[in-house]
Amino acid sequence: MEFEFDLIVVGAGSGGLAAAKRAASYGAKVAIIEVNQIGGTCVIRGCVPKKLMVYAAKSKKNMDSSEGYGLKNEGINFKSNILLKNVREEVSRLSNLHRNSLKKLNVTVFEGLGRFATQNELEIICPKTKKIKNKISSKKILISVGGKPKKLNIPGIDLAWTSDDIFELEKFPKSILIVGGGYIACEFASIFRNLGTEVIQLIRGQHLLNGFDEDLSLCLEESPTFTEINIISNTQLRSIKRVNGNLESTLDSGDKLLTNNILIATGREPNLLHLNLDFLNLKMDGQYLDVDEVNQTSNANIFAVGDIINKPNLTPVAIEQGRVFSDNFFNSQKRKVNYENIPKAVFTIPEISTVGLSEKKAIEIYSEKNIKIFKCKFTPMSNTFKENKSKCMLKIVVHKLTDKVLGCHMFGETSSEIIQMVSISLNAGITKKDFDITMALHPTISEEFVTMYG
Ligand code: NDP
User: According to CATH, what is the number of the domain 5-148+269-330?
Assistant: First the structure.
């Protein structure tokens, strides 16, 4: 059978774009199908617009607390409509940049929903009319449709927002209930609170950011931002109803809360529904598509990358998976994605960042007697003349016998920038002694990483 394309990519998010561009750069004839703006979750409804909002929140927090530096605050007037409009314009600009680079590489863009007709053919469906606009065929197909917010199955859930809705707002609410204690919940709680919204955060467990090193969760909960947030723990949302233009939430405890709006941030799930995958009988890994180490599904023509497979759902991971896929299948390389020591950050104010094993995980793997912890907590110099001083915390998890650094964790300003560099040394197998013999750079926060002695 003759195919029109060498590769069809379904979904123009981080993973799909990376794969399409890389394959096209090797001379492959590539098509990409996308129903929304080019860019996917990261560019359109995730990392990029969120980080721009974080910068707004940080600026406001700095202005609010810098009188000690001689900067008299005469009252700052935050206009959320201006921020939201500027964010949307920037997102469109970035989306257009991606579209132009696809054009330069001769990648054909099809607008609509991709739906499998056969294992080598996809129909492109108009989302409004549901009519088939086109049918295209290819030797290889890469699924990179990403994830979507998970919704709770409770009465009134459609009244609540997900993170997708935040980026469509015209202005911020005066008060909000945020459900969840993970990345999205904490980042938006921090953005909203620092920009003046009253925030209540509802978590089903005891602490924020389950799975992160416990010291990081505690630092976040003690921080000035989160002490201004009403965190309600060990309970769940049972129902939502509209009351006089506001939303009334009923909790498991029977307690009721009244806020302008509700944000549900209880995780994400693969967005596979429209693809018509059933007849292909692809092997699944729970809710995810099962793939091998070269991202091949149980059908040899079909591959998958990004948030639809059971790997860390992070932009750089999806990009690397996409590039490695195209390097292997369109340039005969034999590459594998390195999933070791992936640095992670939660962009609260201050931010959290981490690489390697948490103290708890290291103890689980190596037992307590084999683990040594180095930790320091202090007020950073930048907060000297500020009220409501937030602390920062640095922590190193070390294997006692080998001296190998197993994990580094940090809470504090610019910690994501610092941990990105630390992750290189962990990948290179660094020991605590290597940290100790490295000269400090003074005065910085990160110098504490090389001056903590046991
Ligand atoms: P997370 O998995 O980070 O957090 C989900 C939260 O929802 C947890 O607190 C979880 O509680 C809670 N939860 C889950 N189910 C329920 C339920 N039925 N009722 C009440 N609470 C519930 O998901 P997010 O949606 O925040 O983010 C999704 C993914 O997106 C992240 O895992 C990450 O991969 C990515 N992301 C990365 C960012 C970054 O790199 N900075 C930013 C945003 C997203 P519990 O802890 O008890 O399970």
Answer: 3.50.50.60
Task: Provide the CATH topology of domain 344-450.
Answer: Enolase-like; domain 1 (3.30.390)
* Closest ligand 1 atom, residue 149 Cα: 25
Instruction: State the amino acid at position 214 in one-letter form.
Output: E
CB 262 within 8 A of CB 163: no
Phi, psi torsion values for 112, nearest 5 degrees: 150, -175
Pocket test for ligand 1, best of 45, 187, 204, 315 (most atoms within 8 A of CB): 204
Two domains, one topology: 5-148+269-330 and 151-266: yes
Which pLDDT tens digit goes with each residue over 346-365?
999 999 999 999 999 999 99
Report CA(267)–ligand 1 centroid distance (Å). Answer: 4
What CA–CA distance (Å, rounded) separates 39 from 49?
Answer: 12
Hey, what are 254's tokens?
């029977």
State the closest ligand 1 atom to the C-alpha of 46, by its place in the atom list counted from 1. 43
Question: Using H for helix, E for strand and C for coil, what is the string for 171-236?
Answer: CCCCEEEEECCCHHHHHHHHHHHHCCCEEEEECCCCCCCCCCCHHHHHHHHHCHHHHCCEEECCCC
Confidence class of residue 454 from pLDDT cuts 50, 70 and 90?
low
Tens of pLDDT, residue by residue over 237-269, are 999 999 999 999 999 999 999 999 999 999 999
Strand partners, 176: 199, 261
442 is catalytic: yes
Does the structure show a pLDDT above 90 at 76?
A: no
Contacts of 123 (CB under 8 A, 6+ apart): 114, 115, 116, 117, 132, 134, 135
Q: Which of 75-79, 180-184, 446-450 has the lowest mean pLDDT?
A: 75-79
345 in ligand 1 pocket by Cβ < 6 Å?
yes
Separation of CA 291 and ligand 1 centre (Å):
23
Contact 204 CB / ligand 1 (< 6 Å): yes
With a 6 A CB cut-off, is 316 part of the ligand 1 pocket? Answer: no
Cα of 99 vs centre of ligand 1, distance in Å, is 30
Architecture of domain 151-266: 3-Layer(bba) Sandwich (3.50)
- Domain boundaries along the sequence of the chain: 5-148+269-330, 151-266, 344-450
Residue 267 Cα: closest atom of ligand 1: 25
58 close to 193: Cβ distance less than 8 angstroms: no
Among 31, 28, 25, 27, residue whose Cα is nearest residue 9: 31
CA–CA distance, 210 with 190 (Å, rounded to integer) = 17
pLDDT band of 174, cuts 50, 70, 90: very high
> Does any ligand 1 atom lie closer than 6 A to the CB of residue 265?
yes
